[in-house]
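Ticket #4471: structure export looks truncated?
Reporter: QA, pipeline team
Priority: medium

Steps to reproduce: submit the single chain below to the structure queue and open the exported record.
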Amino acid sequence: MTALAPTLDAPAVPTPTDVVNAAARLSSQLVTTPFVRADRLSAMLNVDLWLKLETLQATGSFKERGALNALLCLSQAEREAGVIAVSAGNHAQGLAYHGARLGVPVTLVMPETTPDNKVERTRAFGAEIILYGADFQAARAHMESIKQERDLTLIHPFDDPRVIAGQGTLGLEMLRQNPELDVIVSPVGGGGLLAGLALAAESAASCVRIIGVQTRLYPSMKRALFTGPDNQPGATLAEGIAVDTSGPLASTLCEGRVEDICLVDEPAIERAMSYLMFEQKLVVEGAAAAGLAAILDQTDQFAGNRVGLVITGGNIDQRLLSMILMRDLARTGRLARLRIELLDTPGALHAVSGLIAAERGNVIDVAHHRTYSDLPAKLTCMEVTLDTLGQSHLERIMERLRAHGYAVDLKQD
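Actual output as written to the record:
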């Protein structure tokens, strides 16, 4: 997904005081999410790692903070007229949910390609959903025309001063819950959260270092603040931070306040999602795992530090989650596909199955190839998908088969 470019209705620049005021405004209306120590990951990585679980907000994401603060800052006339945004993600859900709570009409323009489950989940909160165009650029242009026609207030997902101040309340909570933090690591898309965290640290007079993380495909904030590569648009697990251009306001606020922007690739993000699922029992979306991906990739940079990691959201597509789980099983040897050559005679398949069973392997699928094979006519091959206890168990099964004269290869394509 490519998010929209920044647009501002209000020219104001938020200050650390605005973050403090936003925290007071939101205190009774949002969940104060847990900030928990990740014991197993801490031991693995030599980092005192703490996880801020924004997945536990009502809509499963930190985006509620900025959306709600912006809604609460509206004048009475603006509330009555309503607000508008172009978004197919967590910002849309945050606006829709809190708009319904506060009685503020919310109009959301989404590309026609937006998955039905996202559309319906957002519509269920009571927002008016307008599907238009094949991409965000087309949807955004249509949103602008509706905004003018209906005289609605735009609430930008990341480059609005009210949104930035709201996102900053997350940082204030982290520093209140654990004032001894050395580093805060956060995923970065357009930069609203990162700017808010930087302002929060300043308001708390904290020496905590702020480090952002972006996917290598969309390094917009890295490029804005430091020397960074150009975008390489493509499919990413971290679609929530796949932003072409960082927000000008957010970038300005991050300058001099953010220590570094780390870049991570797709395998690192997938590995981080798996670690969070299996080691910490947390289901997160790809963007939310980017921070851990950076720590896994650059352990030396964080070793020995008390690190606060923002787990930004848990709204992952179920099919994608299923695929990542299965790929992790394959990567660790818990699920494997073997290609086994054998004589094309009665009982040969039974013999192979017996050897696998003797090693307590569980056969879950068999494909037997006779015709489409380059083997001699009296030989055939079978592909067996196995459920195992792990890599060492898989190796024992393969060794047993080879000891009985079978040619065995591990299929990984």
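Status: closed, not a bug. The export was complete when the record was re-opened. Leaving a note from the reviewer for reference: DSSP finds 17 helices and 14 strands in the chain.
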